[in-house]
Each structure stands twice: as structure tokens, then as C-alpha cells.
Aerotolerance regulator N-terminal domain-containing protein
Amino acid sequence: MFTHPWAIFIGIFASGLPVLIHWLTRPRPVRLPVSTLRFIRGAVQQRRARYRLRDILVLLMRTAAILLLAFAIARPLMNKKVVAAADEAPANIVRVVLLDCSQSMAARSGGIAHFERARPLALDSVKFQNSMKANLLLAAASPSPVFAGPTTNLRALREALQKSTVRPEQLRVQPALNLAGEMLAQSGAGAKLELVIYSDFQRANWTSADFSVLPQECDIQLKTVTNEKDVPNLAILNVSPGGRVQTGQETQFTVEIANYSSTPRHTRVELSLGSVVFPFEGHVPARAKSTLGGRVPTPGSGWQIGEAKIVGQNDSLPNDDVRAIATEVHPQPRVSYLTREERNKVASSAYFLERSVEATGVASTLQNSNWIDAADPDVDLLRSSDVVLIVRPGRLSRQTIAVLAAMVQRGVSLLYVATDPLDASNLKDLAEALGATARMPVEFAPLSSDRSGSRRFLTDVDRRRSPFSAFGDELAAALKSLQFEGGLISRPLADGLKEDIRGTLSDQSAFLTITSTGRGKLAVLNVDLERSNLARTPILVPLIGELISEELASGQQIKQTFPCGEPFTLTLAVGEERIEDLQLIGPGGSEITDPEIRGKLNATPTGIAWEVPKAGPPGVYQVLLEKRPVAAIATSIPAVESDLRMIPGNVFKERLSGGRQLTYQAGSSLTNEEQDTLWVWLAAGTLFCMMGELFTLKIFRT
């Protein structure tokens, strides 16, 4: 049995090259005039015999060196046991071979990857036997059977094994066992049922395995491909920015490192993002996780891609030492005002709000803000906003409500200043359009006519959270001077989150609520800025500034990293009319062609959704519109695959067998363990032949 049999055929072909080269380069006779041949003939005969012996020895040495090198590359495995003993009578056997192809099988011990140890063993399990049917399950995030059921075409199974490779995915054990159970259950009565599993039996993946899904009479053979109970490894588990990444500002990035070894490690990580390279260093204790952090200068605006990489370390699984990054670097927030009031109308609610935003410096009024007429809004201009401030909009149309709801789901945040009865109706429609994702803490309603002129006070606020946490010890004195007239009343909702209420008025109505929904936020400020004294106090500017910078402009942290092999859905901030213009680009810069990795672009009520059934190999995937990225995601090795600790064999027999017959074979007892070093001796033989050739040439030197 050979791990790489193709090398033998190449070696046999190459072994003829020394003879061919010798024949093509043999000396040609040269005609010379001489006086007599008496002495020349004897000398020629003597030298001819000597050179012929030399040529034969050199050719043998060269041919043997080529053949030995070919056999060393082929990796022969000798004297292996057959799953069914040779002296047993042929039986009607139905066998399913389950080969673990998850990322952890790429780990190396003794200089050999676990998967390369498993491959020849699995090949031996599907070698020809009379009256046997078999099938092969390549298991990772989802099981991939070679055939729909057991077959006698064992040659095709061996070919599939030769072509199989490790996948950068997590092993989902139970779906593989379920599929194996279905195949075995469909076999005819009287057949001997066998399930042979080759894996490293990671504790994180196999602890929840349920073998009761297999037929009761099934013979389960678990064969581990490594004898080491604890394989040391160092891995990057996660890389993420702390909130919104904005041009011209440093952003806090954190890198989570796991040390799955018995010794502490001093670790250095280099984070590259666009043109920026930033080092992180820290101490990671043994058998622990640690978070390294630092403020990274942000490159230019737009989508930036890069990676975080552990440097200067040599561990068992180098694949998880690198993690791709995709993050959007935002310009200064674009703020839009959705209102029916005229711009620069002194002492109006919109006027107070705009002047407060301008005073905070969060957004430049001239460059980064838009004034949109709520009666007939410019939808494209509205969609280009990062934050929308809604004040005295009148009754919003259903179309405008739908656009606002879709924007919130895509990551835009709204600040609704609730002033008059129409605002209560608008908020109710907006909550309905957002659906179940928006768990509003209260329902707003108009003030009754007899209470419209009464004064209310701010009696309770959440001091630990923004925006009120920014006031510190001066908060109590600042709140005493506030008086409110107008606005709305509210009543709590049973399924709402009480912690979303940041401030409460004296009549128990909500003053400020902030609700996260989708990737954006909806904040409601229940105040009439014209009738209350809030706009005439120094509180309004820092209040609005904190709301926009800390809550609304940062939005929800968007997940931009997905584990390989797993499904995901990403909502794109692109109108559905441009769906045909989008391009999906993979890590190599070329368009994605694999249907599973490419997925589909579908128009939904909240925008275009990129739905992918199986995230591709590690790297960055981009969505382009007119050759410019509008979204990007990074795929990475699942973090669970970095923990290489094995589950003990007795756990399978005592807890997980499900009453089935189960045998566990450790790596030390697998028959090819001692034979897998034969290639080393063959390589040494190659070197011996090459040295022998040099020695022969030196002896026969003239």
C-alpha cells in the first residue's frame, strides 16, 4: 500500500533516463592516421573493459537512486492488518468508512499530518473483499458521501480517498453519524454492518456524539490517528474593532489568542489593515486565552482588508496562526434632517436640533448634513445617511416608513424627536415595519388636551450608560433646572426591554428610549424643544453629541467574519434595482464560481440579501458595484478546531456508545505506525547510491 502511488509511475519512467542520456552522450570514434596498430589494439581493449565496468556501475547507481527516491515519495506502508482477517470466511459485509476532514486533522505530530496518517488506513478499509459493499463519508461542516449508498465499486472509493484533502471547517459529528446510520439501516437483512471512523477525536467536537442513531447490531470501530493526548497549539481566535472605524481617528482593535499548551507563551501578532501594519505583544498563560489590544491608526476610507498573523512561533497547526480581516472605514458621519420645517427658522425644533449637532462637532453642517423635506423625501439622499434626525415630520407616508425601516436593518440609526400627536402614529407604524426585531420598551400616545399645558420633570435616568454617563457628578444639578411641556405620554409594553429606557419623566412617561434592531438603532427623545427649556440650557448640546457619537453613529457591531463551511446571510446597503450590477469576488481577486460558496443575491423588504449556504476557504470576499466594494466579509477557521485535546477512549464506551458494540483503537496500536518510517530508509538509500556513484567515478578516474 502506498500513500502516493503516482510517484511510482513517474519513477519507473525516470529510471530509463540515465540509460538514454548515456547512449546519447557516448563517445564517437575519431579517425587518426597511425603507423601501426600492434600496440594501440591492446591498449584499447584494456581501457574498453575498464570503462564498460565503470559505465555499468554508474548506470546501476543512478537508476537505483531514482527508483528509491520515487518509492520514498510514494510512502509505502507494509504489513498492515486487513479489517477482516484473511483466514475468515467471506461474509456479506456492509461497511461505511467515516473520515474526519476537518481543520484539526491538518495538525502535525512526529512531522506527519494526522490526515496523512488516516488516509492509508482508510484506503485499507476499502480494499477488495468478497461479498463486501462499502461507502465513504468525508466529514466536516457537512458530510459528503461518495455514493448515495454502499457500493461494490471500491476502486472509486479509493480514488476519492486519494483526492481528498483537509477542509478549513469544523467537524459536525452528529449529521455524519445520522447519515451513516441511514445508509447502514437500508442494507439487507443478515448483512454484517460496520462503521469505521478515522479521526483525531477532538474533545470539543465528539463530546456530544450520539451513537444510538446507528443500527443496534452495527459494529462501531473508532480509530484515532495520533497517540498524543495533548497536541500543543497557539491560535488566533478572533480579531475585531471596538465600534465604528472612522477616518482620521485611531481605533481600538482586540486580538484574542488561545494557548493550548502546557507552557506560557510570549506572543507577537502583526495586524495589517490596508497600508497600516501594527504590532501587538503580550503574555499568554498556559491553557488559557488572552486578549491583546491596541489603538490602530486607520487607513483611508472605504472597505479595508488585511490579516492578523502570529509571528515567531512554531506550533502543531500553523493554519490558525493567521486570520483575515475585512472592515469598513467610515468617513465623518453623514447626518440628515427629516422634517417639514424650514431650514434656519429661528426658535423652531429643527433649528435647535441642527445648532446642537453643529456645536458638538460630530458632523459639519455644510459638508456632512442634508435637509430633507418629509412631505416629499429624496429617497436616494435619505439612504446615503449614517444618522437620520426626525423632527416635526408631520404624517409620514407608508413608503417613507418602509425606507426608514430598511435603513435601520442595514445599520443606519434614527433619532426621533417626538413632539406632537402625529409622531405617536409615525412611531407605531415604524415599529410595525421593523417587525419582531424591534422590541420597543414603550408605546407612545398623544397627551390629552387637559394635560398638554402641564409641566413635567426628569426624575429618573440611567447614570451608567450614555448619554447621561458623560455628565458625571454634575448630572444631578443639571437635571434640577429642566422643565418639560408638550411631547407624548407612554405606557410600557410587556415584551419590551426595560433597560432600553434611559430616562423617565415625572408622570412615568419615557423621556429617552434607545432600541437596537437589525444592525441599527432607533432612539426616541420625547420632548418639545420649543415649549420646554431643554434647548435653553447647556445640557442639550452634550446630550445630542453623546447620543450621536456614542450610540447612533457607532450603530450595531456588524459581524464581518464567518466560519468556513457555515451558512451566512449579509444584508447589503444597495437598492434592489442594482442587483444585476453586483459582482462577487473571492480572495484571489477573481469572480466566485462555486455555487455553494457564491450563494445567491435576493431582494428582501430590508434590501439585497447575500445568502451563502457554505462560507468559502479562509480569506476576504467582496461585493463590487461598478468595480468598487460595497461590502466585504472575511472567512476564517472555526475557533473550536484549534483546541486539539482528545477525548479519552473510555468516554466513548461508558457514556456515548448508546448501547452499541464499540471498539476504540489508539494510535499506538495501528499497524502502520512503525511502518510509516520506511520512506526514511528509502531516502537514505537514495543518498547512498549517489555517494556510491561519486566513489565509483573516483576509483575509475583516469
